[in-house]
Amino acid sequence: MESLTINKTVVFLNCKNVIKKVKTNPTIHSAFVFSIIILIITVCTYAQINFSRPYSIFKNTISDQGSLLLNPRGQKVWNLGIICAGILFLPHVLYLSQIMCVGTPIASQILLITGSISSITFSFVGIFPAEFKIPHCIFAGITFVGICLVANIYFFLNLKKLRDINGGSILNINFSQNYKLEMIFAGLVHLFLDIALIIFLIQFINQGKLMPISEWAYLLGVMLWMITTTRSSPITIQNKNKSEILNKLQL
């Protein structure tokens, strides 16, 4: 019994060390993010190739790819991929909450809780295919809204961090032009993601039937947002800024 307790303690400490390394290593996080995106693109491509009829993003919803009836050949791979993507999304959320926890502990905890719920429901979308209409719609809806909330919480916390790094000003950030453009791009991505979600919700509430293209627009927005988290995080900005200062001193 004592040995089991010691082993649990060792595992916990090892996990804590891994989290600490990921928190301070944006490169690991970047590789992780692109792995999730590649997984989603791969399973979607496979499901569409094996679809029972020509697949169209204008006529078929995202969930059609995992339908037992519409996609008997490709549904297993797609559903398994979505389950895995949901599981992998959790460490991504943990990373975001970790790098934001200093100075904004409550907001970072809200981000973590919301993201964790979204991660679980993300996986449940694959566990309950489209034929299980009620649970599938509930889990998909929670995932869509939850991820968008996580993205917006992260974005505004990011702006606050950048303002603090720059001495209280966000308008005159003393970083390179490339990084200013990346922050503008991140803002446009969030705007695109929010608009896609609003259109999705309006269609669902008013008609109960969705235009598939709005789902695909939302998914594109989520993937673009994940990419922006690898470029515009406070750690990445600070490291880049330090590198630029050192280069100027060397010159």
From TrEMBL:
Keyword check for Membrane: yes
Keywords: Membrane, Transmembrane, Transmembrane helix
This protein's record includes keyword Kinase: no
Membrane-spanning residues: 30-49, 77-97, 109-132, 138-157, 183-204, 216-233
Protein's recorded name: DUF998 domain-containing protein
Lineage: Archaea, Promethearchaeati, Promethearchaeota, Promethearchaeia, Promethearchaeales
